[in-house]
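Title: Comparing notes on inverse folding

I've been comparing how different people in this forum approach sequence design from structure. To keep things fair, I'm posting one structure and asking everyone to reply with a full sequence. Here's the target:
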């Protein structure tokens, strides 16, 4: 029997065929570094990167292509944005549902730049109360950072009203869209985020090693470059060019990955994002309902019918979910993820720290049969 991969919130698998072919096509046939040399393969690689920026700009509703910055993943984008933007003593508002990709840079900045951090509450369905947010605002608040969808519970956070409140207070908003890009039908063009950070290898179904950020032009002056190095532009200067995207993109790019990301954006458009999301939604609902019928299992986060991504995490009253995860893998060939999911504060908030929970995350290539087999396997293990 075929194995069942239910760890798509970590990274999507398998990748769509055109994505795999684009990566190997680039490596086999093009190979050259973009934006460095004048020969044809280099120029063609440059065009491929530019076209991918255009696809990303279209997908996220960015106003200009130069503002799409490519990074190795969303962690890279968040590090550039947080460390480049925040100044000593700044006050930051965020939530306890952030991934370590946000928590750890913030923690380091707290130690090294004395930034101060406050966390506003988010309910299990992802709602944020304006009053809670406003209560924590200070004169020196300079940034709001939030993930769009929890990688632990699958709850979709209410970032549209938050972006409006931030606008009213003239506060920049940084969004970690790791779990939502490609996984939610969301009106990106209505979101007023000054830093929109995404990863290419989860819901977008691109290759690992891809991601980026869309930076508001008004943030560029204050947000310092993160690494300095070759850009193929202004090579006579010893300082990093300040033009975009070069300011934040030093060194040879992951062009093979970007070729795959290019194919992934086209795949989403060709297949229809709505249909892709609808299918994952059906599978997730089936999984949630099935879990709720199993005695001893509790599904974390949004209740039935409430908005969630295709992530479903459970606890097991009679035992250790890590053990359950190992059994599912070794005895049933079903891949899941147990533990803290790099989100320790979320687990503290949910009362599941330090043991964590067991996460199932469906993807575009899962079937209803995969869900039936998974539920049957859990029932069998639990006796
Ligand atoms: C909410 C969230 N933020 C950040 C990340 C980090 O993603 P990446 O490893 O692609 O940088 C993840 C991935 O696990 C995530 O779920």
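Reply #1:
Here's my take.
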């Amino acid at each position: 029997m075929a194995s069942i991969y239910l760890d798509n919130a970590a990274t999507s698998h398998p990748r769509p065929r055109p994505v795999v072919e684009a990566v190997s096509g680039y490596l086999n046939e093009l190979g050259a570094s973009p934006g460095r040399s004048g020969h044809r393969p280099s120029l063609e690689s440059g065009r491929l990167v530019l076209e991918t920026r255009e696809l990303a700009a279209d997908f996220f509703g960015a106003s200009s292509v130069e503002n799409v910055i490519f990074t190795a993943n969303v962690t890279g984008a968040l590090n550039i944005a947080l460390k480049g933007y925040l100044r000593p003593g700044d006050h930051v508002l965020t939530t306890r549902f952030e991934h370590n990709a946000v928590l750890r840079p913030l923690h380091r900045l707290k130690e090294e730049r004395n930034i101060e951090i406050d966390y506003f509450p988010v309910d299990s369905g992802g709602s944020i109360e304006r009053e809670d947010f406003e209560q924590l605002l200070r004169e020196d608040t300079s940034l709001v950072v939030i993930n769009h969808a929890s990688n632990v519970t699958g709850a979709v956070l209410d970032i549209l009203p938050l972006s409006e409140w931030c606008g009213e207070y003239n506060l920049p908003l940084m969004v970690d869209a790791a779990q939502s890009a490609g996984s939610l039908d969301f009106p990106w063009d209505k979101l007023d985020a000054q830093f929109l950070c995404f990863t290419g290898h989860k819901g977008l179904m691109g290759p690992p090693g891809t991601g980026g950020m869309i930076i508001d032009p008004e943030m560029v002056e204050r947000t310092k470059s993160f690494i300095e190095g070759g850009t193929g532009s202004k090579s006579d200067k010893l300082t990093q060019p300040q033009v975009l995207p070069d300011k934040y993109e030093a060194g040879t790019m992951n062009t093979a990955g970007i070729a795959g990301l290019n194919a992934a954006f086209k795949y989403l458009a060709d297949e229809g994002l709505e249909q892709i999301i609808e299918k994952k939604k059906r599978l997730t609902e089936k999984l949630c309902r099935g879990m709720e019928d199993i005695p001893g299992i509790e599904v974390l986060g949004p209740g039935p019918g409430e908005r969630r991504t295709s992530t479903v995490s459970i606890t097991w009253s009679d035992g250790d979910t890590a053990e359950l995860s190992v059994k599912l893998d070794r005895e049933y060939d079903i891949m899941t993820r147990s533990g803290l999911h790099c989100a320790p504060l979320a687990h503290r908030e949910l009362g599941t720290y330090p043991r964590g929970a067991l996460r199932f995350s469906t993807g575009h290539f899962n079937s209803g049969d995969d869900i039936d087999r998974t539920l049957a396997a859990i029932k069998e293990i639990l006796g």
